[in-house]
Inverse folding.
């Protein structure tokens, strides 16, 4: 263990002197040799006489080669003087001319026993520090490390001296700065900084560095932090072109973020939309050099310019973007629609009447126009679109800061050349990004926009007209495989048709048969059948009635309602099964069926209006009349998942109860009956559950087999119910056999009466048809009974 030696009331100053005229020999390595003693005495005497400071003592501690290099200590009583003052006095003494040129003062080095000077060790800077002090390096953990800014130096080093030798730095102890910080952690760290005019450029540059190198690892939390930082940057209202360009470059990097991350972030915090709005805010304040600012990246291009109404007397404002190999290369202006270059990938044009109207209403002759072009729709994530319908080309935005232009008489004209062109994508929808759609999550809306025409110049150009300003795009339908929809459509139509007939037959069987009708399980099943029948009818008739929005919304609400009622009645059936088989005793529930109706018909009647009330556009799907995918998870998938889980638990309990039944006759009969009930209930629950489980797998890019299997199971449920609950039910079969027998006997009696009447007439009415005596009536009754018995046996 090293310790620091302090000589009380005395100073020890180590120095290093080089004597050019002395020759080094090996004997000088030995302090006890005569040669070392003589040389030391000479040097000590020389220094003592040369230094005018009184009361000093000079000691040569070591001699080294290099002519002769002497390590010397100079001691002095401290008195009232400080160590640094004494060291400075020595330095001044040595700065005088040396005696006879023996001492090389140019190579004089003065050390300290009390402190270490600044020194770079292993690339790290330490000092100054007092002897015995553990000193952190000036360098701290880099920003890329998790422990950056805590503070955490890169290394620690101790200044050490034994009180006689020069203080020196010991070995460096490197600090653990931790793992590399993730992009999210770096962004969260930046988000904690208060952005000011002084540091705004530094902050946005740091964000740009993170997104440029780590955009592929950013999560929704990282996007939220990015949006918050960008909002803070734009709130400073910096007019710096460099800040603006760095912001544009940062947003361009965000196009590399995973699409699912962008979608989740949009649903949770609307971070992508907030970033887009912040960019437009920044372009509204940036300094314009020669009345224009322009910056182009591979994914985003922006332009801000000042215009005057005098310049627009007879011309409008036109901006066009040009693309090469899926990269934006240029943004330029044009004044007449006819001046638009056919090679422009996207353009927007404001006619002069709109600028004049704006000038007249606002009393201004000069204003700023901001244009943004996005190479694709990554920063506009939504659940509306699918593989068949999606944006096809660039997105262009034009705005006048601080001004809302809506319900324009002369339209804003936008043109698009689709990025992907095929013979199947000829159905074009002109849309704009509505930030308020879907509870503020944003989405594409066609309100106020329509397709004017397309492909007029042979370039596949699509021309849209809109009555307002915002972010514009086109949606197109793609049909990569036309066979799958046809097969699925055929299976759906056939299956639903068969199921509707079977469900009607099942409902009629339960309704007209008093014995079956009184059974509680059959009453429940009858309600299931009614729900499925309504679901199939509305699906078959109205699922594709998308032309009229109000009609489509109504049909979507009804389909949603009857789908939920069918599943809720399934849970009622599971509850009834539990009372019949598991609980058995004290199972009476007053007004059970009334409560079941309130539950199964009532709760869906609350869910559907609430879903509509939250946002009626939830049902505004452009391809079919049903919920958009986002709401489907909460309003459809969640209730169905809970019901299926509940039914599964009940079935397990029922199976366990049946397995414990004894072997005696009464129990065996009960076991047989219970198994029969469970078999029917389990079959229909498994069929409905399996349908929806497979339905989840059939969403998106599922295989053809999964999609076809989903269609088959979903559409033939009514047929399966008819097989299980009518054809396999002995009471139902017997009822219909008896009904047919009665009808057969009735027809036979009518035929006999007709034949007898004819015979009586042919013999001159000599034989009177009809029996008057009791004996004759008895004989006839026995005959009819025998005939009906034979008929029944034959029919069976």
């Amino acid at each position: 263990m090293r310790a620091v030696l302090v000589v009380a009331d005395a100073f020890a100053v180590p120095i290093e002197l080089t004597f050019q005229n002395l020759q080094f020999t090996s004997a000088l390595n030995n302090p006890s040799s005569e040669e070392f003693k003589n040389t030391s005495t000479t040097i000590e005497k020389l220094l003592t006489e040369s230094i005018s400071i009184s009361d000093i003592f000079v000691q040569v501690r070591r001699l080294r080669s290099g002519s002769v290099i002497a390590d010397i200590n100079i001691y002095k009583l401290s008195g009232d003087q400080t160590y640094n003052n004494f060291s400075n006095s020595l330095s001044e003494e040595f700065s005088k001319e040396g005696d006879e040129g023996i001492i090389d003062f140019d190579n004089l080095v003065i050390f300290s026993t009390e402190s270490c000077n600044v020194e770079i060790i292993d690339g790290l800077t330490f000092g100054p520090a007092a002897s015995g002090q553990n000193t952190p390096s000036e360098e701290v953990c880099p920003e890329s490390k998790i422990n950056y800014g805590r503070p955490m130096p890169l290394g620690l080093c101790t200044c050490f001296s034994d009180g006689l030798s020069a203080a020196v730095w010991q070995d460096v102890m490197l600090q653990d700065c931790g793992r590399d910080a993730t992009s999210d952690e770096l962004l969260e760290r930046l988000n904690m900084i208060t952005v000011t005019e002084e540091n705004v450029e530094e902050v946005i540059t740091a964000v740009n560095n993170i997104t440029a190198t780590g955009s592929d690892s950013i999560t929704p939390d990282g996007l939220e932090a990015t949006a918050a930082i960008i909002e803070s940057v734009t709130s400073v209202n910096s007019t710096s072109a460099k800040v603006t360009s760095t912001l544009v470059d940062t947003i361009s990097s965000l196009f590399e973020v995973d699409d699912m991350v962008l979608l989740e972030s949009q649903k949770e915090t609307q971070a992508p939309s907030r970033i887009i709005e912040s960019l437009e805010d920044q372009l509204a304040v940036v300094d314009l050099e020669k009345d224009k600012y322009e910056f182009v990246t591979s994914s985003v291009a922006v332009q801000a310019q000042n215009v005057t109404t005098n310049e627009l007397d007879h011309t409008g404002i036109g901006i066009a973007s040009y693309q090469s190999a899926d990269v934006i290369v240029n943004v330029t202006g044009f004044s007449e629609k006819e001046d638009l270059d056919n090679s422009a990938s996207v353009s927007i044009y404001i006619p002069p009447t709109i600028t004049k109207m704006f000038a007249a209403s606002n009393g201004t002759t000069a204003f700023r126009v901001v244009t943004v072009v996005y190479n694709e729709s990554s920063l506009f994530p939504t659940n509306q679109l699918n593989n068949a319908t999606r944006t096809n080309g660039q997105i262009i935005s034009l705005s006048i800061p601080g001004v809302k232009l809506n319900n324009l008489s002369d339209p804003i004209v936008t043109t698009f050349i689709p990025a992907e062109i095929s013979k199947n994508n000829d159905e074009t929808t002109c849309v704009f990004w509505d930030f308020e759609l879907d509870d503020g999550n944003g989405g594409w809306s066609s309100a106020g926009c329509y397709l004017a025409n397309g492909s007029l110049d042979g370039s596949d150009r699509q021309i849209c007209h809109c009555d307002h300003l915002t972010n514009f795009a086109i949606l197109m339908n793609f049909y990569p495989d036309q066979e799958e929809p046809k097969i699925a459509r055929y299976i759906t139509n056939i299956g639903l048709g068969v199921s509707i007939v079977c469900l009607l037959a099942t409902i009629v069987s339960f309704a007209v048969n008093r014995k079956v009708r009184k059974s509680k399980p059959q009453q429940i099943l009858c309600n299931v059948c009614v729900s499925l029948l309504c679901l199939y009818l509305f699906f078959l008739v109205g699922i594709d009635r998308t032309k009229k929005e109000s009609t489509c919304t109504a049909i979507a609400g009804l389909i949603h309602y009857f789908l939920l009622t069918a599943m809720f009645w399934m849970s009622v059936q599971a509850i009834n099964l539990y009372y019949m088989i598991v609980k058995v005793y004290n199972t009476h529930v007053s007004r059970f069926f009334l409560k079941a109706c309130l539950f199964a018909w009532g709760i869906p009647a609350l869910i559907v209006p609430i879903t509509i009330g939250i946002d009626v556009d939830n049902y505004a799907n452009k391809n079919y009349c049903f919920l958009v995918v986002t709401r489907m998870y909460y309003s459809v998938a969640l209730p169905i998942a809970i019901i299926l889980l509940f039914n599964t638990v009940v079935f397990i309990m029922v199976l366990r109860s049946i397995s414990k039944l004894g072997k005696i006759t009464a129990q065996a009969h009960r076991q047989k009956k219970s198994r029969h009930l469970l078999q029917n209930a389990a079959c229909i629950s498994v069929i409905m559950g399996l349908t929806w489980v497979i339905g989840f797998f059939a969403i998106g890019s599922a295989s053809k087999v999964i999609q076809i299997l989903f269609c088959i199971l979903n559409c033939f449920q009514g047929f399966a119910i008819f097989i299980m609950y009518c054809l396999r039910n002995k009471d139902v079969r017997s009822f219909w056999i008896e009904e047919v027998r009665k009808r057969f006997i009735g027809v036979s009696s009518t035929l006999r009466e007709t034949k007898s009447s004819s015979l009586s007439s042919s013999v001159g009415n000599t034989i009177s048809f009809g029996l008057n005596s009791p004996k004759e009536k008895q004989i006839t009754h026995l005959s009819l009974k025998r005939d009906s018995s034979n008929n029944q046996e034959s029919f069976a």
Summary: The first strand starts at residue 10 and ends at 19. The chain has 20 helices and 26 strands. The chain has six domains: 10-111, 119-174, 182-287, 301-306+317-480, 491-728, 745-795.
